[in-house]
Inverse folding.
C-alpha cells in the first residue's frame, strides 16, 4: 500500500458549523472590552496552561487524573506540585515539568505569531518543533528487523527515515516517505494560503490542516503536538481560542482521525467546533464578570444617557432569542405528544392502566415556575455552565406510567449570569419514588444528552431547527435507553 498524498478540502461550506459561526460573531462583538482586563488575561493564561498539559497527555508523555491537571491549571506548572500530587519521583517530575513548560512556551509563541501577523511557513513549523522538543533528546525507533532502539531526536529537522507505526490489527500505517516530505510540506503551505484567502470556516480549515499534516508526519517525533498547534493557529487567527483536546476526548479524537484517513474529516470538524463552542461559553462568563466589575466606570466615562440608549438597542436585538426559544418549545411539546400517543397505544395492549402523557410549562409560568429547578441546575453543573432560569424558563416532559413512573424532561433556559442572548436546551430523566408519607420525589436523575443544545440570537431559525432535529433524536434515544433500564 502506497502513502496517500494530501488532498484538498471538498464541501467546505457543508462541513462548517452554523452554530459556531453565530457564536463566533457574538463573541467577536464582545471581546474588545475584555482585552485589557485582569479577568480575561487570567482566563487566557489558564487556557494556555491547559493546552500545554493536555497536548502531552494525549501523546502519553505523562499520565494522571483530571484533578492534577486542574490543580496545575489553577496554580501553574511546578515540578514539586507534580511530584506531590501524582506520586511521581522528583527527577521524573522535573523532566515532565520541563516538557510542559516547553509546550507552554510554544502556545505563547502562537499568540505572539498571530499578533505579529507573520506568514505561515515551513520555517515557522520547524522552529516550533525545536521549542516543543527542547528537553527531549531521544526517541524510540524500529529497526528493519523489528527491534526497538533509542536514537537521537532531530530537533527542527525533517525525518531521515520512515516512521510508519504498526496498528492494533497488525497493519502498517504509511506516512509520507522522507524523500517526499519537503514536496508535501510545500504543498500543504500553498493550499493553506489558498484556503486562508478564501476565508474557509476555521473549524474546517483547522481540521483539514491538522489531518493533512499528520498524513505527512514530517518529524521523527512530536507530530501530534505540532498538528494541534497549527490547528490552534487557525482558530487564533480567527479571533477564537486554543484547540484543547482533553484526555476525555481521546477516543473521539483518534476515531475522527482514522475516519479522516478515509477522506472524511466531518467528525474532526465537529469535535473542533464543539471544543471552540465550549471555550466561547466559558469566555462569555468571564465577559459578564468584567461587565459587572466595570459597570460604574462605564457609566461615568460614556454618560448615563448614552449607555442606556445603547443598552436598549442591544436588548432589543438580544431578546430575539426568545422567539427562537418559543419555536423550539412548540416543536418539543409536539414531538413528545406524538411519542406519548404512540407509547400509550402500545402500552394499553399490556395493561389498561399503563400509558404515556406529555405536558409543558411555557416561559416562566408562575404556577409551575419552581418545577425541576434543582434538576436543571444539577444537569447544568454536570455540563459546566450556569443555567439562568430567571429570564426564561420553559420545559416539556413525557411521563411514562408502567409499573413505575418514569419522566423525560427537556428544559429551555439561558446560559450565564446575565441576559446575553445565549440559551440552552438540556434533557434529563428520572424515576418517581413515593416516600412513606406518600410524597413523590425524583430519584436516579440522569443527563439525556452527550452535550446540551446551545443557540443564540444571531442564528437563523431554519439553521437552529435543523441542528435541533438531530440533537433531539440522539437525546431521546439516550432517554429511552434509561427508561428501558428501569423495566429490564
Amino acid at each position: 500500500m502506497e502513502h496517500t498524498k494530501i488532498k484538498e478540502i471538498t464541501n467546505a461550506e457543508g462541513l462548517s458549523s452554523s452554530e459556531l459561526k453565530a457564536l463566533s460573531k457574538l463573541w467577536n462583538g464582545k471581546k474588545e472590552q475584555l482585552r485589557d482586563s485582569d479577568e480575561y488575561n487570567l482566563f487566557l493564561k489558564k487556557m494556555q496552561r491547559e493546552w500545554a498539559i493536555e497536548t502531552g497527555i494525549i501523546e502519553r508523555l505523562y499520565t494522571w487524573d483530571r484533578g492534577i491537571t486542574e490543580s496545575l491549571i489553577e496554580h501553574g506548572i511546578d515540578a514539586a506540585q507534580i511530584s506531590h500530587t501524582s506520586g511521581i519521583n522528583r527527577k521524573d517530575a522535573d523532566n515532565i515539568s520541563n516538557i510542559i513548560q516547553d509546550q507552554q512556551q510554544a502556545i505563547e509563541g502562537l499568540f505572539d505569531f498571530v499578533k505579529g501577523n507573520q506568514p505561515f511557513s515551513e520555517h515557522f513549523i520547524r522552529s516550533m518543533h525545536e521549542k516543543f522538543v527542547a528537553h527531549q533528546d531521544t526517541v524510540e525507533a524500529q529497526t528493519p528487523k523489528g527491534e526497538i532502539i533509542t536514537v537521537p531526536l532531530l530537533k527542527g529537522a525533517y525525518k531521515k527515515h520512515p516512521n510508519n507505526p504498526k496498528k492494533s490489527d497488525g497493519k502498517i500505517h504509511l506516512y509520507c516517505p522522507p524523500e517526499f516530505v519537503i514536496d508535501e510540506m510545500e504543498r500543504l503551505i500553498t493550499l493553506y494560503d489558498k484556503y486562508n484567502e478564501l476565508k474557509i470556516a476555521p473549524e474546517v480549515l483547522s481540521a483539514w490542516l491538522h489531518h493533512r499534516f499528520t498524513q505527512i508526519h514530517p518529524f521523527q517525533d512530536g507530530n501530534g503536538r505540532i498538528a494541534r498547534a497549527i490547528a490552534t493557529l487557525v482558530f487564533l487567527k480567527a479571533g477564537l481560542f486554543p484547540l484543547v483536546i482533553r484526555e476525555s476526548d481521546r477516543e473521539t479524537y483518534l476515531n475522527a482521525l482514522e475516519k479522516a484517513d478515509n477522506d472524511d474529516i466531518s467528525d474532526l470538524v465537529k469535535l473542533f467546533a464543539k471544543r471552540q463552542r465550549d471555550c466561547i461559553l466559558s469566555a462569555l462568563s468571564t465577559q459578564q464578570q468584567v461587565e459587572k466589575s466595570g459597570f460604574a466606570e462605564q457609566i461615568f466615562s460614556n454618560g448615563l444617557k448614552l449607555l442606556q440608549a445603547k443598552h436598549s438597542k442591544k436588548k432589543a436585538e438580544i431578546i430575539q432569542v426568545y422567539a427562537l426559544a418559543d419555536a423550539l418549545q412548540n416543536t418539543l411539546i409536539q414531538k413528545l405528544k406524538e411519542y406519548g400517543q404512540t407509547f400509550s397505544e402500545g402500552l394499553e395492549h399490556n395493561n389498561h392502566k399503563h400509558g404515556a402523557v406529555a405536558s409543558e410549562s411555557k416561559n416562566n409560568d408562575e404556577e409551575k415556575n419552581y418545577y425541576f429547578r434543582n434538576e436543571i441546575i444539577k444537569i447544568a453543573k454536570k455540563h459546566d455552565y450556569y443555567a439562568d432560569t430567571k429570564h426564561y424558563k420553559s420545559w416539556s416532559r413525557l411521563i411514562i406510567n408502567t409499573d413505575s413512573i418514569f419522566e423525560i424532561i427537556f428544559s429551555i433556559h439561558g446560559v450565564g449570569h446575565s441576559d446575553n442572548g445565549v440559551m440552552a436546551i438540556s434533557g434529563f430523566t428520572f424515576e418517581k419514588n413515593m416516600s412513606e408519607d406518600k410524597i413523590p420525589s425524583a430519584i436516579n436523575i440522569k443527563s439525556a444528552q452527550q452535550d446540551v443544545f446551545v443557540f443564540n440570537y444571531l442564528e437563523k431559525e431554519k439553521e437552529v431547527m435543523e441542528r435541533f432535529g438531530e440533537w433531539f433524536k440522539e437525546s431521546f434515544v439516550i432517554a429511552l435507553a434509561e427508561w428501558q433500564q428501569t423495566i429490564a
Observations:
- The beta strands are 138-142, 148-152, 355-361, 387-401, 405-415, 422-434, 440-447, 453-456.
- The chain has a mean pLDDT of 87.
- The longest strand covers residues 387-401.
- The chain has two domains: 15-285, 320-487.
